[in-house]
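Morning run. Coffee first, then this:
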Amino acid sequence: MTAPAQSPKVAALAELAARLPGLRLLTAPADLEHYGRDWTRRWTPAPLAIALPATVEEAQAVLRWANEHGVAVVPSGGRTGLSGGAVAAQGELVLSLERMNRVLGFDPIDRTLTVQAGIALQAVHDAARSHGLIYPVDFAARGSCSIGGNIATNAGGIRVIRYGNTREWIAGLKVIAGNGELLELNRGLIKNSSGYDLRHLTIGSEGTLGIVVEATLRLAEPPPPSQVMLLALPDMAALMQVFALFRARLKLQAFEFFTDIALRHVLAHGAQRALDGEHPFYVVTEFDAADEAAQDAALAAFEHGVNEGWIADGAIAQSEAQAAALWRLREGITESLAPHKPYKNDISLRIGALPAFLDEIQALLGDAYPHFEVVWFGHIGDGNLHINVLKPEGLADAEFIAQCEQVTKLLAAALQRHGGSISAEHGIGLVKKPYLESTRSAAEIALMRGVKQVFDPNGILNPGKLF
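And here it is:
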């Protein structure tokens, strides 16, 4: 009997395995499902296979093979994204960097840490602390997200108000372009005016221009001792007033807000209540408190807010354990909402544009989602809001998403009027692709497509994402 003919892609995969005997290739159904999706859970994963290189050279060889055989490649880090940027649902090869997860070096003079792209953010934090320094980008998914993924989406997190986004802390990158060529970008320099900075072009490109394989990260001095305070606020207007008050009087490290609905979910998920009574809005803020004067200033700001009617109640942590418990009220929200299959919007505006936008969008969401539970939280100190719509029991997934997408069109139009962005820190991916024009002009998008063509001439890197 004649053996059945292999499909071209399967035959090409066998060739890849023979060409790179040290490359780990996974094809088991459970592996395809695990590596083929991210936190969106909206697409059925269907990758060709999972390639896990251990070296830069192996990763380059995989991309050269992909170009030869016309195989699309989806870069994969921790897959904690919420925009479908790491989804492989069309027979793509997933290139996971999880084996490339080492610290490669520390420079005490430049205060930089060089790491492979698959290293977890938590491991970077630990490595920096071992040298008496910090890597200041931080968010709740620190234990599972990777540095490469953080770079691909220019991740922000809870301390952007003090330290900025990932972009500010990238001194240099090694990136494999779509044709397999290795680029060394900026080489850790502080000043470099020798032409276009391709490092910054790569940051936030969602794996569509190249695959980050190594990063040199800038480190910082540890911040002074801080205190954490939980505030209960009576209304949305008070949120901006308290932010302005605290920013003027204190050196803020973080200023995060969430609603009573968010609190209810995170308490049900195991967090501990810190304030009595019910309040519509809450803030967790962290600020420098190195001496008695700074601590007195915080109490004075709190009392001023109470006297103005902007703050209804509050609590200040008296220990590291209490500070962690207060932070859990904010950082535990995403995990607590996951069982409800939320439809997520991650939006950004200038801080000064927030009040007018919030007035408009609250009315829009109230009209559009009368029967849905809407959970608000986010980084008010940098204009980033997370809007989560929870799926009611009994409503089919497809119908739920269809209803939510209708309102996202209205949301995108409102953001365009107020000069905002449909994606603050999770990227465009598949989810936000239809709304890119609300944030970018036609001329900008045309230039972006041209850049993509130069970096990835055969269009194999994360196709279908972003555009």
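The chain has a mean pLDDT of 93. Good start to the day.
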